[in-house]
Each structure stands twice: as C-alpha cells, then as structure tokens.
Prior knowledge:
Layout (H helix, E strand, L loop, with lengths): L7 E9 L3 H8 L5 E8 L6 H7 L3 E4 L5 H10 L5 E4 L4 E3 L1 H13 L4 E12 L2 E2 L7 E8 L3 E2 L11 E2 L5 E11 L5 H21 L6 H18 L6 H55 L1
Helix pairs in contact: 1-2, 5-7, 6-7
Amino acid sequence: MSDANGKLPVSVFLITKNCGRWLEQVLEPLADFAEIVVLDSGSRDDTLAIAQRHGAIIHHQDFLGFGAQKQAALEFCSQPWALNLDGDEIIDETLRDAIVRLVREDDPTVVGARVRIRDWFIGVPASKAARPIRRVRLFRRDRGRFLARETVHESVQLDTGEGRVVDLPGWIEHFGVESVALRVEKINRYSSYRAEQDLARGKGPSALKLFTVFPLRFLKSYLLRRACLSGRRGLIQSVANAYYAFLIEAKKFESREIHRQNVGEGKMRAEGADDQRRHDANKGEQ
Length: 286
C-alpha cells in the first residue's frame, strides 16, 4: 500500500518546541513517509528550519497541554495511518521496516501498533534486558484521538471495535532526558502538570502516598522494571522516577493548603468587614 507518489501512506505528527538538537535525526528515517506534520508552540532554535528542510507541514499553536496539543496536530494529518513521535524520539531501522510492512500489508483487523521506547541517559541507552515501556504510537488515523484532559502522560484513545493492536519489533530511542539537568527540569515541570490534572479529576493529596510513594516507586523502577540492569544510570533514573512521583503528591498537598489559607483569609476579611459595619452602625446610633 503506497500513495500516488510511491510513499508510505502515513502521517507522522510531532509537537515541538526547541527540538533542534535531535530533530534532524528524528526526521531522517521518515523520508519515505507521505506526510510529516509539525505543530510548534514557539521554538526559538533551528527546529522550524530543520522541519522545513525535510518537507514538513508546519503549523503553530500555543501550548494547550499535551493531550489537546497532540489532538490538534492529529487533526492536521491526512493519511490513512498516523505515527506519533516526539521531537526527541528516533525510530531505529528495525522499527521502521516493521512499520513499512504493517502499513503495506494493510490488514483490516489491525487498528494500531505498540512500540517499545528506550531512554538514553548520560550518553548510553537503557539496557535492552530492562522491562521496556510500550505505547501505541502507530494507528489508523480515523480510529484514534487524544483527550484534552490529559495534560501530561497523554496516550491515544483507540476505537478498536473488533480490531486488534499488535506489537512491533525495534525501538523508539528517546533522547530528551539524556542529562541529569534535563531530567530534573522535566520532573519539576511535568509534576506540576500531573498534580493539576489529578486535582481537576478530584484526586486530592494522600498522606499515606506522601509517605510511601517514593520508596514504592523506586522499587518498582529499580527492581520490577529492571532498571538495576543499567548500572548506576539505572539507579539515578529510578531515584528520579521516585522523586517525580513524590513531587506530584507534594504539589497536590501544597495546592490544597494554599486554597485553605486563601479561604481562611477571605473569611477573616469578611468577618472584619462585618465587625466594621456593626461598629459604624453603633456609632451612628449614639
């Protein structure tokens, strides 16, 4: 299955902001894909110049939150299949070949495909023996959507019907957390998004989770997901994962306490105003 120009009928869509460091490598393996859609939220580096060189269709949208931003990018796509990548994610040759085979076979029972994602950290990829993260990234365009309420950790919602989702070989190599500084910056930013998202859904802070989430998340990452096989890098990443989970709870607690304090201050001001009115009324009667 190919389009009239012999290209693979896939729309690759990316949301970007200052992704110039990786974008050249991201787009190079996608030359045979029919369409590349870039939705940018204000890049000041060479992101847009690189995208233009690779023939991308570029649109601008101030950042709406990850779910809404990806849905906006998806709505610009025109091909039967859609492939979602971030501006710091590179597909390897094995995955690229698997995508080509799946799309060309065009099995009508297949509506999407899960792929494995591997973080690079301090110049080295995570061990392939660790438990990988799998996400649906390739899907039939008219069967998937993103939810605006998912401001972070968004995932495509597939209308599978009687269809199925398959697993593809190969990897997406993720470079966006390759240094400690980048990891810490993202932890702070994403934990704020996630705390706001949880509170909007009625998931308030938990005293129990505040005490337990750090050690439990560390053990899950280091042992259950086998980050321990990545040596000291795995240890650092597991501590970072645990800290991220802890910050979400801490920020939800902070938000609730600030709300309580504001309510209390408002009540005190209202009571003070009532006292003043009573005082003025009594003074007028004298």
